[in-house]
Amino acid sequence: MVKTILVLLFILLLSILIALIWQAQKSQTLIQRYQDIDPGGSGPLPDCTDRPNCVCSETATPASHAIEPVVIEHGPTDEAWLKFQQAVRALGGNVRFVSDHRMWATFRTPLLGFTDDLLARLDSASGMIHVRSSSRVGHSDLGQNRKRIEALRNQFQNTLRTSDPSQ
Q1: In the CATH scheme, what is the homologous superfamily, with its name and number, of domain 2-163?
Q2: How far apart are CA 94 and CA 57, in angstroms?
Q3: How far apart, in whole angstroms, are the C-alpha atoms of residue 38 and residue 40?
Q4: What is the pLDDT of residues 98-111, one digit of tens each?
């Protein structure tokens, strides 16, 4: 009886491992999508899929994926863009690509080490940084991407405050 339970448990764990490896391989196509971001492009960030593991401030379809952009309240937008990159790194983000108005960074989830992607687009004309955070693997992220953007927004504001002696 114990031997049967152990065999079933082993099969279950092996099945989970195979499913995770398959999902990781499947996400390799997403990596190419992010690597192909046109540095000179000025279009909006990509839409979220229908899975509840993505938030976007620019093209949130469906509406449940909507999140507010990061607002640049004062100062030059190019300086704010550099501070935003600092805030991403301070939260553990690995900046993979950056131009004068686009950025791609990756984050690792704490428990299982999955990779999540953050895309950002500086909109100098409106004084905003549009953001998109999405999980590569799985269906739900339990709100992790939304929490990441809110933490990034707070970190960005703190970075601006510490560099501005008048605040």
Answers
A1: Kinase associated domain 1, KA1 (3.30.310.80)
A2: 21
A3: 5
A4: 988 999 999 998 77
149-166 pLDDT, tens digit each: 999 999 999 888 876 655
pLDDT of residue 159: 83
Q: Is 65 left (phi over 0), alpha (psi -120 to 50) or beta?
A: alpha
Helix (H) or strand (E) holding 29: helix 2-35
Long-range contacts of 25-34 (CB under 8 A, 24+ apart): 27/115, 27/136, 27/137, 30/117, 30/136, 34/96, 34/97, 34/104, 34/117, 34/119
92 vs 96: CA distance, rounded Å: 12
Domain boundary assignment for the chain: 2-163
User: Collapsing DSSP states into helix, strand and coil, what is residue 123?
Assistant: strand
